[in-house]
Every structure is written in C-alpha cells, then in structure tokens.
Amino acid sequence: MSATTTRELVEIDERRLLRRLDDLAQRGALAQGGIYRALYSPAWSSAMELVAGWLKEAGLFVRRDAVGNVWGRIEGSRGGRAIVTGSHIDTVRGGGALDGALGVVAGIEAVTSLWDRFGRSTRILECVAICEEEGSRFNTNFWGARAIADRLEPGEADRVRDADGMTLAEAMRSVGLDPATAAGAVRRDIDVFVELHVEQGPILEDHGPRLGVVTTIAGTAHLEVTVRGQPDHAGAMAMTRRRDALLGASAMTLAIAETAVRMGHPAVATVGTIAVEPAQVNVVPGIARFTVDARHTDPARRTELLTQIGDACKAIARERKLDVEIRTLRDRPPVTLSPRIADVLRRACLAAGMEPRDMTSGAGHDAQVLTAAANVGMLFVPSIGGRSHCPDEATTADDVVLGTRALATALRELAYQM
Amino acid sequence: MSATTTRELVEIDERRLLRRLDDLAQRGALAQGGIYRALYSPAWSSAMELVAGWLKEAGLFVRRDAVGNVWGRIEGSRGGRAIVTGSHIDTVRGGGALDGALGVVAGIEAVTSLWDRFGRSTRILECVAICEEEGSRFNTNFWGARAIADRLEPGEADRVRDADGMTLAEAMRSVGLDPATAAGAVRRDIDVFVELHVEQGPILEDHGPRLGVVTTIAGTAHLEVTVRGQPDHAGAMAMTRRRDALLGASAMTLAIAETAVRMGHPAVATVGTIAVEPAQVNVVPGIARFTVDARHTDPARRTELLTQIGDACKAIARERKLDVEIRTLRDRPPVTLSPRIADVLRRACLAAGMEPRDMTSGAGHDAQVLTAAANVGMLFVPSIGGRSHCPDEATTADDVVLGTRALATALRELAYQM
C-alpha cells in the first residue's frame, strides 16, 4: 500500500532545523560548558516555551498535558489512532545539545515540512516534547513517557525528591501543574511512536552507514553496592591490619568493568558514583558505596552479566575480609521495538539511498516505555566519537539533516496513507 | 639529681580518672555511636566547661587563652619555665573516647594527685586542654598548639572555612573569642611539654610492653590527585572506547596502598576521600579526585614513598590514556622529640617495673608542633585492636591507669626537683 507512495525522500528546511537546535541549546547552557535542563526548572520552562512557540508557528494545535509534556497536533482527515514523533526536552547535568533535543526539533521540522508540502495528513499526526527522561534531578526517570503510558506509581510525585529535598509534586506546582491530575496525561489513542535520536555510541561512526534502525533496547540494571570494612587512623594503623573499604571498592570497580569487557559488545558495566565514609583525608575508609549500571540486549546474557558482577564483588569482599551488600535499585528487561515500524524506517532510509544498520541501543529511551502504549520505532544518526551525556556530544549537520529527512519520510508513509 | 628521687610510681585516684573519661565521652556523643567535638561547637564548649570545672576543683588557677585552650596552673615555689602536660579536646567526626581526651584527663589527674600528695611543686606545673588538633571541622589543624607555638599564619582565621562556609574567625566570635587577639595565646615560657596518648596502632598490643616512649613522629604528606578522562553515556559508549577516570583512580588507589605495603612498616599510605564527576549512575566518570595521606618517620624513605606514589599514578594514567595532576596539600617533615624528656619518661616506666618500647608515631600530635616551643616527650599506652578515629577506640582500664601513673611519675621528676 503506502510503501510505494513514499519512496521519495521528503525535503525539509535545513537552515531552520539547525538554527532551532542552536536556539534550544541556549536554554540551560552552563557557564562552564554543557547544558542542564532539569525537569520543571526555569531552563526547562524556557525550553518548553520555545518548543510551544515553534509548534504554534507551524499552525499545530498546541497543549501542555497534566505532567508538562508539550504536544502539537494535526487533526488527520480520517481520524483514528495517532502517529506521534518526538523525544525528551530534559538533559543530564552538563549534557550535550542533541540527546533528546534532536528528536524534539527534528520531529517538529518533519511534521512542519510535511504539513507545508503535503497539507493535512490523513492520520492524526503529533509532535511531542516529553518533559523528562534522564532522571537527572529526581530519583526517578522516564517520568513523561510513563505518564503517557499509564506507568506512574501511586504517590510517586509525593515520594520522590530532588537533592534539595523538594518533592516532584512540589516541583510540578512550581510550574503550575497539579500533581493530583497527573493521570490526565495518559494516552490510549496512540498507534505509532517514532523517535529520532543520536546513537550516543561509536558504532555508526566506526562501521557505517549513517543511519541505524533500532530493533532492541538494552535492559538496564542499576545496583547499589555497599562495602563495609573498618575505619582506622591513617597514620597509626599498620597497612597489613587494615580492612579498607575503598581498597575493596576499587578492586570491585576494576573487576566489574573487566566482566563486561570479557563478555564483549553489547555488554556494558559502569561504576558512575562512589562515596566513602567517614571521608576524611587521615582516616581509612570504613564504608564505600558505589552504583553499577549494567546493560545487555539479550535477557539471558544480561542475567549472566549481573551474576558475574555479583560474584566478583563477593569474591573480592571475602578475600579482603570486607562485608558487601548489593541492592537492586532498578531492573528493566530488554525491550523489543515494533518490526512493522522498523520496516517503515528501513524504507525511509532506502529512499535516502542507504541500507540502514540494524542496531541495539545500549542507552535507555522514552521509546522503550512507550512500547506499553504504541507500536514504536527508533532511528539513529551517528555520534561524533561516540560521545554523549557530555558537552562534546555532536553529530555532523549532514547527518542531522539526513536523519530528519528520513524521519519525515517515514512519517509520510505512516500518516499520509491514501 | 632528681632521677634518684622519683623511682617510686606515683599513686592516682583511679576511679576519678575513669569516671571523668566517661563523663567527657558524653560531650559530643552521637546518636549513631562515636563522638564529634568540633572546634568551637556546642559539644566542644560543653567539654571545655567540664575540664575547667575539674581544674578549679583541684585548686588550680584556671584561664582560657586567646584561641580557647584551657589552662590550669600551679605556681611553683621556685618559678622558672613551666612544665606542661595535656592533649587536645576535639575529636574527628565519629571518633572515640580516648584520642586527645586521655591526655587531657590523665594530665589533670596526674597534676591533681601530685598536688594532693606532695603539695606545691618547685617548678610551675600546668595542665592544658588544647582546643583543636584533628582538622575535622576546618581545613586546617593543630590550631591550638600552633597558637601556643606562634605558628599561626597571618589572616588564617579569616581565610579558613568549615563545610558550611563559616570562617574560623566567625566560629571564634560565636564562643566569645576575639580572632584579632589570637597572638595572645603564644607562650615563650614553657620548658617541657609531656603528652600521654593512645597508640592508635597495634604495635604495643601485638608485641608489648604496655608502655611506649615516642622518639619520632612521622612526617605526613597530603596529596590531592585529580584524574581526567572522558564522560560518556554508560549504556551507549563501548567499553573498549572509554577513558573512565574512576577506573584510573581505582587502579591508583590499589597501587598506592601496595607501594606502602611493599616499603614495609612504618610506611603508610591511605586514600581517605574520593569523588567523581558528573557522579551520575548512568554516566562514565569524566573526573575522579582523591586524597592521599602518606607517612614515614625516616625523611629519606618518606621522600621515596612519595616519589613511588607519584610514579605509580603517572604510569597508570599513561596506560589508560588519562590525565593526572598531583597537588601537595600538606607536607610536614618527621619530628624528633627530646631525648632528655624521653629519658625522664623511661625512668617513670621503669618505676612501674617496665622497660618501655621506643616508638615512632604514625599519627600526628600536638607534641610535634610544640617542639617549636618546648622540650617535648610523649608516652603511649596500647590501643585495643590498634583501633582509633572510630567509635571502637579503646584501651583497658589497667593500661589507662598505668599510663597515668607513669605520666604523674615523670611530672614528679620534672616539677618537684629539690
């Protein structure tokens, strides 16, 4: 059916696309470099206003939902369930200009271009700027996508706090949202969600081509490991009599990375935070506490990775006469995306003269949460040096344009069916 | 001369000694266990009031000096330069009941018993509770002893801050002290300073005897090591492409400890604090920063230890393609105590029927600073399990009594000369 009607790569306004990415990158820009748009912060509000302005300018019907996701809508001539594109507006602390932002800006550019060139869609076509994905401010994440997919936990907004002790509910009220009505964000009428995103890894850059279609998103486990030894005087306690918790944690940190290296791609394991007690220059650490982020796209290999990490920590603790406690903070299984939407995305890439690479995503994405509410597809463009979650995150302008045109082409097939 | 008059071990009031140690341990006791008497805090003021009360009760002339050290004085019948005993009143955060406290309480007990039994001394005899030694609240230490020894730095009280941003000068004013008059604490009339202290290490417990005379105090270097790699997405960046600053810091932490182990006693090296940036569970650490505390009693070996630590860090950084920067925060050479006072202490131990062990101290002490102002001696009693700077810090009652009697005996020789 529509497959034959969309073999032509859709044109977009390249200069507008790139200028808007630059404009959005100013919202939350930090003096020391990088960007921080924390959920419900002034920088976040400013970015959301910018996005809402672009949607209005395009002539879309704009609304903010009950948790602050911003939507722009074209009522399709034939109604039915909606075709949606977008990504998240928030960033990690000191993040880059593309993670989330690309999918938001490219989605608006694609829908605006389709509207300008082809008029009203047959299907309902929507852009969304999702309020939160990164979990950078509050000890929770995928807040926006989970609200859409009806996956918020009862009382979550009152329970979850930021580093200053403010609850998510209080933060919502600070931007004029009512936490009691959060369920109003649920959408049961979405057919398709398509997200363009930077790869955030080096595979497309190292091996090509310039477009990737995501088939699976890795399952992420977050662990908290607490190592308990014995605090002692750093000057007076003999080296051989110590039970130094940080020496244990250091050996574990090295072993955890080695476990993932040994298992090979796409296994990854990262110790991203660490703290010791009593944290004094002249006291042997009695407690060391660190987090582990471990991922794999294959459920069985992922379980194996977690088992090996646990075993390595326990063996080191035994050897060094330390106690170790491993707590699971989060445990999300791998998610398979829609093969049907992947085919649509592949055809769009072929329209650009390119056979895309089938990819797994090591990073988590709104897309994985929205699989609970829609048929989901995801398109990757290369990240220079594979860098992301840092100020150096970048993609060439050519790749940004190419990805956006492929996204528009896929949306044309999805929303402009005869 | 006096050597022949003091061969008898001086009696003390054991029950009063032990009860006062218990009473002092209540001041600054933490709900979770351990003690924290931070300089110029309410717990500190409360402890100083207790001490001043004991000194008054003994009939000594009591005064608080310009930085808050509390002194009790017996005017000797023949005047001259003073014989002083004491230690510090402050503790590390979550410290024990003896570090500092033993020297203060035992000093008061010894002087009180001498006064009760033998009347007025021939020499001026003083007890001192030194206001600060540990450096737990402010980013400085030996504040009290340096004030006595005229070793405060110009403007130090206005420059140095606690974790809440309060300056040392502001903290002084909060307890009624005037930072502008700090120089009033300088003493140029001290002949001898003798300090009783717990060993804080396991040597006396492991090898005996129950008394040690300190000949040298180790030189302490504090380094700050900053490791710079590359922050990356913990899910998307391949393991083999990372420049993880924490992996580098972990390898360095292990290598630093190994360097001291290889050099052997009394070399020690400790990583006591560590922090990473951006410190997010799902971001590869781009920066890791840690401190090193390294000590040796032999100046040449100490230099060698620091060189080896620096070389190890640089080699690991090279191997892992990381940058490393090593900054010296503090560099104190080893200090030799007075051989004359060591002989006095040895005779006091012999009066207890015990040949003491000559010891080096890995821990720093007020005594080392006071070598700039007096002839200094230091006596150690065992630490159970070698534990210190922790709630479990303990010494048997028998050893506390023995150490106090030996101290009193030494003070008798020093201050009751015919």
What would your notes on this structure say?
Two copies of one chain form a homodimer. Chain A is α/β, with parallel strands linked by helices and 418 residues long. Chain A has helices at 14-26, 42-57, 101-118, 143-148, 156-159, 168-174, 203-207, 245-263, 299-319, 339-351, 366-370, 397-415; strands at residues 61-64, 70-74, 82-88, 125-130, 190-198, 212-217, 219-228, 232-233, 268-277, 283-284, 287-296, 323-331, 335-336, 357-361, 375-381. In chain A, strands 1, 2, 3, 4, 5, 6, 13, 14 and 15 form a nine-stranded mixed beta sheet that branches. In chain A, helix 3 (101-118) crosses helix 12, helix 8 (245-263) runs antiparallel to helix 9 and helix 10 crosses helix 12 (397-415). The longest helix of chain A has 21 residues, at 299-319. Chain A is globular. Chain A starts with 13 loop residues before the first helix and ends with a helix. Mean pLDDT of chain A is 95; it is low at 1-6.
